[in-house]
Every structure is written in structure tokens, then in C-alpha cells.
Amino acid sequence: MGLGLKPLLIFFAHLILLIDTTAAQESNVNAMFLLGDSSVDCGFNTLFYPLLHRNFSLLPCDANATSSLLPFLLADKIGLPHAQPFYNQNESLEAILNGLNFGSPQATIMSNEQSYQSLNQQLRQVLDAIQLLRLQLGQHAARHFIQSSLFYLSFGEVDFINLYLLKSSERKYGGEEFARLLVSQMVIAIRNLQEAGARKIVCMGILPLGCSPRVLSEWRDSPADTLDKKGCVKEMNELVGKYNEVMEEEMVKLNAEFGDTQMIFCDVYKGMMEIIGNPTRYGFKESKSACCGVGWYNASAVGCVAMEIACRDVRRYVWWDLYNPTGVVNALLADSAWGNRPFSTICRPSTIQDLLFT
Predict the structure, then answer these.
(1) Phi, psi dihedrals of residue 28, rounded to the nearest 5°
(2) What are the mean pLDDT values of the chain's consecutive 10-residue runs (358 residues total)?
(3) Class of 26-356 per CATH?
(4) pTM
(5) What is the rounded distance in angstroms from the CA atom of residue 335 to the CA atom of residue 316?
(6) What are the residue ranges spanned by the domains of the chain?
């Protein structure tokens, strides 16, 4: 790039930032930055994902792709563009200003040899993007933009599935110890984001994996007392519940410690259990089997390998594939996270809407 073009690019970047700020004054947020697993990405952000999916679906999102994922449904409510995959932005300043998605379907909190985008890897990418903003926009403009952005984290599912459930014979930790270890890593990441300038942070809890088609398939021959009254695997849900409980406790502490930072914990577990406990009330016919897949509960190890094997009416299903809910479920969770309906207080201490208007 010639020397004459760079100042012009920076001028337009400032102009874009000014326009974005003006347009989003009501919501008080300019962009979303997403970190997480299949709850934030359909595989677009993972190189060679079809070759690496292992115990996950080849198609972790339905035909609507990202538009059916919870953070993108929230972006629509805010009036923001959908965050683009990190690997597609090519260090473009304009792309960063529109928000980036650092997520990957198999992302874990704990780094390990099988993790394709761990929490720490994604955090480093976020910090690199923030540094690029500072270099291109200057410290003041970059700080304002970062403080006016929403940082959305959704992790933990894969840790319980891949590192705990599917390798039960190799467990190194007890259930509560494992949950607390995961939370401690999340807290470190959140502290790093806060130190880098983030002032609006949303942390999502883990869904009730004990009710997911894959877990039900794995435990189908277990004794009857393995399941709870809703037909879900008690042990798995207790582990996930402990993680959610401890994660929320730590978010409360972080809110008290950083008075200038607003942090919300969203208990999506609670919302999904409401649906699973009374699916017909919310328009669902099938709450155990996956819409797309084969085998017991449509949840064999290969998961959803082709759209051709998907159910005809996805709107009637709670689960899309092995572990991921359908877009209809995500829409209910998004409505509740935003405005407390139909499930009240799943996000605490406030709704996401309240976070963005204060």
C-alpha cells in the first residue's frame, strides 16, 4: 500500500467508527466479538473441519447456518452485522470494526492435543485484533471502540463431552473439581479481556448435555435410576449444573471487583430444561432424538453427515444433531436472554437488552 493511501484508509476507518457509534447510540454497542464452540460457529472458522469432526457432526448447523445460532439472533436484535469468521478477515480493519467470530465447533476451554481452537488460542487472536485496532486507529479511538463492543463467550460443552464423557476411563479429576478447573480458566480469560479494555462481557452457561441425543444414546442401556424425571442422564447434568453454578458465582465476584465493567451470565441450561420438561407447550414434538443423524436417537458417532438425512420439519425438534439445539430453540433462548420471555431471568444480573442500554 502506498504512503498516500494509508492515511486515507485510517481516515475512513475513523469515519466508519463515527458512523457506527452514532447509529448504535441507543444500544450503546458497536460490534460483537464471539469466542466459543459450535454454539457460535458452524465450522466456517475451522480449517479442514470436515476432516476433523470426529465425534461431532459434519454439519453442526441446520440449513439456515449461522442465522440460527444464538449470538447471531442477538446481533439481529441489536441491529449489528453478523460477526465474520476470523480466518476470513485477512487483518482487515473494516472487518474488525464489524465484529469478528473467533469460535470453532470443537473449541475447548482446556488446551490439549485434540483441541483445534482452544479458549487460549481464541483469546490470543482477540488480543492481536485489539492491538491492530490500536495501531490503526490510535489509542483513544481504539479504546472507545473496544469499550463499546460486546464480547460474547460460550465454551465448555466440548470439554465435558470430549475430555470427560467419551474418555470416562481416563478421568484425572472428579466432577466438581473438573468443573471448577474449567471455570478458573474462563475467569483468567475474562480478566484478560477486561484488562485489554472490554467493558461489556456476556458469558453463556452450558446446555443440559445429559438430555442431548448423543448422551442418551451412549447411556441407553444404563439402569433406570440413571435418568431423571425428564429422561435425562442425571450424572452428566449434575456436572454441567455445577459448572454453571460456579461460573455464575465467579461472574458475580468479577462484577463486584470491576465496577466499570458489566458482565452477564446467561443460564441457557434453565431455558432448555423448561422446553424439555414441557415440549408441546413450546411447539415441539420430539425432545430426545436429533433432527439430523442416524442410529439410536439419530445420534450415532458420525452425527449429521448430510442435509438429506435431516428431518422434514426442523421446527418440531429440540435438538438439531448430537449436541446442538435447533434454530427454533435458539430463537426462544435469544428472546429470553434479550427480554425475559418466554423464560425469565436466564441472564443475570440483567438481560442483554438492559446491558446494552445502560
Answers:
(1) 65, 30
(2) 44 46 59 96 77 73 84 96 87 90 93 77 96 95 97 95 64 80 97 98 98 94 92 94 98 97 97 97 97 94 88 96 96 97 96 88
(3) alpha beta
(4) 0.90
(5) 18
(6) 26-356
